[in-house]
Amino acid sequence: MLGRAGLLVFGLALYGLALRLMLDARVGVAPWEAFHLGVTRHLPLSLGTVSILTGGVIVAFTALFLRERVGPGTVLNVLLIGLFLDLLAPLVPDPPGLPARWLQFGLGVGLLGVATGTYVAAGLGAGPRDGLVLGLSRRTGWDVARVRGGIELLVLALGWLLGGLVGWGTLAFALASGPAMRAGLGLYGLGRAPRSPAPGGSVGGAAHGRD
User: Fold this and answer.
1) What are the tens digits of pLDDT across the range 72-86?
2) What is the pTM of this model?
């Protein structure tokens, strides 16, 4: 358990670093952030409040309807990623030109995939949005890259309709995050999630099963 907890925290630290790399690249926010910003334009809520409420709704949906396990990793995902995002800020450079900014953005997307595979491999529960991807992949039998890409594009469209900040980086993230997540899971031998078991069968951790 101690080793799994260490792997979880290490993965979440990488996740925070990946988000910081993309944020400081300044080529566009991720689709979920665009959606959160769009919601704040229509409701008297802060960005952080919208993010927390959205995560809560997703966790409830995945637990009740997709039978995705909620574990300590789900809670720590919400609490620690933001902390690491701030703590690692001094280590991330401010790219001087557009090519360097896109290079840093691409590095962030790739690292995000590795970070996802790392903390999911700990087996202590996925974060709200990654859990949604894994749960839908398990239910439909579709590849995680396909599910992740579809969700990100849908959220991007909603964010744009709500007036959120959308840039070329937003679209690039929506298209690249799925393959990055699949590659990161593959590093730990985690492939496509199996279909939901028959009624009465065990569903705990099914989304994290190995091929």
Assistant:
1) 888 888 778 878 877
2) 0.79
